[in-house]
Amino acid sequence: MGAEGAPAVRFRHYAPGDYEAVCDFLLDLCEADPRCVNWNWARFEWMMEHPEFHKEEAGAMGLWTLGDRVVGAAIYDMYFGEAFCGVLPDHADLYPAVLDYAWENLRDEQGLGVAVPDGERQKREALEAQGFVPAEQTETIQTIRLDRDLRAPLPEGLRFASPDPVEDAERLQWLFWQGFDHGEDREEFLREDPVAPRVRPHFDPRLGVAAENGAGELVSLCCLWHFPGTDYAYVEPVCTVPAYRGRGAARAVIFEALSRARALGAEKAYVISDMEFYGKLGFSKEYHYTFYWKK
User: Fold this and answer.
1) pLDDT category, 1, cuts 50, 70, 90?
2) Based on the structure, what is the number of domains in the chain?
3) Contact call for residues 220 and 246 (beta carbons, < 8 A)
4) Does 147 fall in a domain?
5) For the domain that residue 49 is a member of, what is the CATH number?
């Protein structure tokens, strides 16, 4: 118990049963401080089933809890070496302990990097007090308001589709393979990237909008994530196969996904990117983060 019999904050390592509690924590954190949207519930959910995520190490993530509620967390980003360290505003005094835990448990041979929103003095001072220094590495959040015209035609010969992450796993992975520039050799793809359906509990398949050609091949995709009751959507991922780039397919699937998110209550959408491409669609830079590193 804490002072005067109040419950005390306790630490524990992450376990699979903590998944929903972490999502709730990230939802609460973004509501309390929108600058924390660079680490939102959807980024966590996308990462946890990403093929590059070191899932076997998930128990190294640290949680600070008050009863059943997570109030602080140290989460590595895909693999050790970069981490998100966050605490709810009422528990800001925990931040140095979260940083210390991340340094001791989530660093790799290069050290540890933590992104901090520009203007966040308290977090910056806590990092500097523990020997972290600012680096040239940065991250940018761009935002688009959804109270605008979101119509964009698909190129001729294409149609919209909403591929199912389980039933259409192979088609989706083949799209990602090409869209993220791994090549166009299907035999190599089948050899190197075994089909693995991804189940993400809170993803709404209606917000996974693809462009499909007459042969049934997926050529472009935008996935949006929206949690009921929140006013924002999160863009992750967007890709187009090389042969269809520059034709407007990506714009069309992004705008269609944004329109669907708006119908579900989203008022804005975020993307973690500084690409000029998003600016041409109407996104504008809203938050900027600097990585602090300790080696």
Assistant:
1) very low
2) 2
3) no
4) no
5) 3.40.630.30
Sheet containing strand 218-225, strands side by side: 10-13, 62-66, 69-77, 79-87, 112-117, 284-294, 133-145, 268-272, 232-240, 218-225, 208-212, 159-161
Predicted confidence band at 4 (pLDDT cuts at 50, 70, 90)? Answer: low
**pLDDT tens for each residue of 71-99:** 999 999 999 999 999 999 999 999 999 99
Q: Mind listing the pLDDT tens digit for each residue in 172-216? A: 999 999 999 999 999 999 999 999 899 999 999 999 999 999 999
Supply the pLDDT for residue 125. 97
Q: Which domain holds residue 260?
A: 159-266
